[in-house]
Design goal:
The protein is of the alpha/beta class. The protein has twelve helices and eight strands. It has helices at 20-34, 48-58, 84-89, 100-105, 110-122, 135-139, 143-154, 160-163, 184-202, 204-207, 223-227, 244-253, and strands at 8-13, 40-46, 63-67, 94-97, 126-131, 166-170, 212-215, 234-237. The protein has an eight-stranded parallel barrel, surrounded by six helices. 1,3-dihydroxyacetonephosphate binds at residues 13, 99, 171, 176-177, 215-218, 236-240.
Length: 255
């Protein structure tokens, strides 16, 4: 478990799941199950059209609702995109940026991830910045180089003050939605490597305060041993965040 100087964050990434009514039902189901479990922050990141319903259902509870992406411009001719100003206007505090599915299927690069990150931070939002290697990179033994490069590029021009609002989610792409999980040792090693890069960029004291989550087939069965590692400060959970009992078990593993 992480030291007291950084917050454990258990976040769900609903991806393209849940209509507003389904989100409302899910939040109403899980709210009493996680009530009073305050040793970690609990967040669900929802599709844009579902955010409002989820926020209303979560009001007054220890559950926060975030978005799954944000554009870097404030407004303009960017069909299909949503700005940080718009998200803020409806009270959204957290946003996932740089998820591997955005990078794989929608052409996001470290440059656009960096622009989106800076825009979200400039608007006072908290960013869950996703990065991680693909299978070929792990097999080639270059995982550390890949995550170091992503960390440096994605956080370019983000100063130490702004970094206080950044959570990093280490998500090995080969572990996402595949049922393959990084071993606790692999997760610890790579999260530790990311922290070393942060120490180079911002100094060790700052690096020690950054929450680094693991994501990739985290579930009720494997969460406890992953979260037991000192550099794993939480989880970003896909599939298991759609099932109240499974997600609650992960929250319990973090207590
Ligand atoms: P799974 O938990 O479904 O592997 O998804 C992980 C993820 O992509 C979270 O952002």
């Amino acid at each position: 478990m992480n030291p007291a100087n950084r917050r454990t964050v258990i976040a769900g990434n609903w991806k393209m799941n849940f209509t507003p009514d389904e989100a409302t039902a899910f939040i109403n189901e899980i709210k009493p199950m996680v009530a009073g479990k305050d040793n970690c922050d609990i967040i669900f990141c929802a599709p844009y059209v579902t955010i409002d319903a989820a926020m209303k259902a979560a009001a007054g509870s220890n559950i926060k609702i975030g978005a799954e992406n944000v554009h870097y411009e404030e407004k303009g001719a960017f069909t299909g995109e949503v700005s940080a100003k718009m998200l803020k206007a409806i009270g959204v505090e957290y946003v996932i940026i740089g998820h591997s599915e955005r990078r794989q299927y929608f052409g996001e690069t470290d440059t656009t991830v960096n622009l989106r990150t800076k825009a979200a931070l400039a608007n006072g939002m908290k960013v869950i910045l996703c990065l991680g290697e693909v299978k070929e990179q792990r097999l080639a033994g270059i995982t550390n180089e890949v995550v170091a490069m992503q960390t440096k590029l994605d956080l370019a021009d983000v100063d130490a003050e702004a970094l206080k609002n950044v959570i990093i989610a280490y998500e090995p792409v080969w572990a996402i939605g595949t049922g393959l999980t990084a071993t606790p040792e692999q997760a610890e090693e790579t999260c530790g490597e990311i922290r070393k890069v942060l120490a180079d960029m911002y100094g060790a004291d700052v690096a020690e305060t950054v929450t680094i989550q693991y994501g990739g087939s985290m579930n009720d069965a494997n969460a406890a041993e992953l979260l037991a590692k000192p550099n794993v400060d939480g989880g970003l959970i896909g599939g298991a965040s759609l099932v109240a009992s499974k997600f609650t078990a992960i929250v319990d593993a973090a207590q």
